[in-house]
Known about the structure:
The complex is a heterodimer of chains A (114) and B (114). Chain A is an all-beta fold. Chain A contains no helices and 11 strands. In chain A, strands 2, 4, 5, 6, 9, 10 and 11 form a 7-stranded mixed sheet that branches. Chain A has a 4-stranded antiparallel sheet with strand order 1-3-8-7, with no helix packed on it. In chain B, strand 10 (87-94) and strand 11 form a beta hairpin. Chain B starts with a strand and ends with a strand. Chain B has no helices and 12 strands. With 114 residues, chain B is mainly beta. In chain B, strands 2, 5, 6, 10, 11 and 12 form a 6-stranded mixed sheet that branches. In chain B, strands 3-9-8-7 form a 4-stranded antiparallel sheet, with no helix packed on it. Chain A binds chain B through residues 2, 4, 6, 31, 33, 35, 40-45, 48, 50, 55-56, 58, 90, 92, 94, 97-108, and chain B through 4, 32, 36, 41-46, 49, 51, 90, 92, 94, 96, 98-107.
Amino acid sequence: xxxxxxxxxxxxxxxxxxxxxxxxxxxxxxxxxxxxxxxxxxxxxxxxxxxxxxxxxxxxxxxxxxxxxxxxxxxxxxxxxxxxxxxxxxxxxxxxxxxxxxxxxxxxxxxxxx
Amino acid sequence: xxxxxxxxxxxxxxxxxxxxxxxxxxxxxxxxxxxxxxxxxxxxxxxxxxxxxxxxxxxxxxxxxxxxxxxxxxxxxxxxxxxxxxxxxxxxxxxxxxxxxxxxxxxxxxxxxx
Lengths: 114, 114
């Protein structure tokens, strides 16, 4: 086990709705990254938070947003859900934003948009 | 832009035989390279990484990988495969500086046959 947890494990939403996914990092890990993994694909980087500030973003629109809290928890929010948002969403935490630090992944939240 | 190629969708190997899972990459500057394993309905588990130094990197569960700069490759290897090694393997790359924007390959399914 990596010590990183995510909730919920599964979620079903309809197009146009909004969703919040949650992640609890290892204690002391001040960096969290979020990834989207579509079926049969590798994870794609959404964004990274370091000490509660977004410090990097992949090719995802602004309707994907996040928050990071001082208690090592974080959220991924997706507004105006689209069918293509159906995927496994993974969070990964690390001790720092430096790539020398290993990322530890949670088990993921599987989102289905109907 | 950085990218990763995993040319084989699936690799089959007999239990006890050596295994190789191939990965090539493209990145500006010196690469940071990673291997992760994913079991069904689970998140990613870190296996090993190359940051700098010795080209042969040893990781978890008896896996190792060799960094070859001239061939831009980072193949994953294990001397003797176990049935329990059957899973989905992802190679990933990033470059130094800034945040942890990691680019993953599409994955290779490893099937170890008893």
